[in-house]
Amino acid sequence: MERFKIFCLSFLCSLLLMTSCSKQPQLYKKEFDETEKKKYAKQFIEGLKIAHNQGSPEEHFLIKEAILLDATFSDSYREMGASRVKRGINTETMKKYAKAVSLDPESWQGYRGYLYLYFYRDYDNAIKDFDELDELTPNFVDYPQSENIDLMRGIAYMMKKEYPKAQEYFKKFFEHESKSGDLNYIESRAFMYYGITYFETGDLEKALEKFDLGIKNNKNADLFYWKAKTMKALHKKPLEILALIKTSKELLSQGYNSRRPYVEEFYQTYIEDIEELQNSI
Question: Containing domain of residue 250, as a range?
């Protein structure tokens, strides 16, 4: 029995010695060729949308890994910028977007213009980005962040109070979008902005025409408010104006108004605006 124990112990020691001397299995690769690096960097970024919340430490880690694999992949820098803009980390945001644009301007210059317009109210840089993107994609209407580039250029010029220039781009926007024959899907704020450019230049009948067209296709508190405001400027009957104001209030209470996450919408209508107009009748 004692010999058997010695034999078993010797056998186990020999087995351990043989195992320790054998080549360890490769559990994961540490070296990749250039094709593999690009492939895995892309997979890291594509996987973010499924596995991790934007801006989380886990997401940040994966983006860093993607950049280590392929520092020329623009999407990585854009993803780093996207989480920062929503948290108000302005300087870091634009650094990341600048890097993304330098690597792939056709994909990201319009997105940076979108940020300049809506988040930073930097209308000149927004227009510059939109114009330069247009040069990269001739005879094609771009939709950065799913928004027509001519609509955004019109908004930028409107906010610069360059109303004739804004009208030029709003006209292009509506001509392009109306090719489908259906204006119902166009956001109400597009009609509102187009009308505001005429209101501000004193062409009240033209402004009314744009607001009415918007109401016909997409009823919204903002459009009724601006129609009421225009009707007042045209010295229309008070009862007609008050009826419009009442509808605007009702729609606003139901959430039918233009608004935007993270930042205030241009010419966003508040209950205080409507009540001020009502009290002036």
Answer: 199-259+267-281
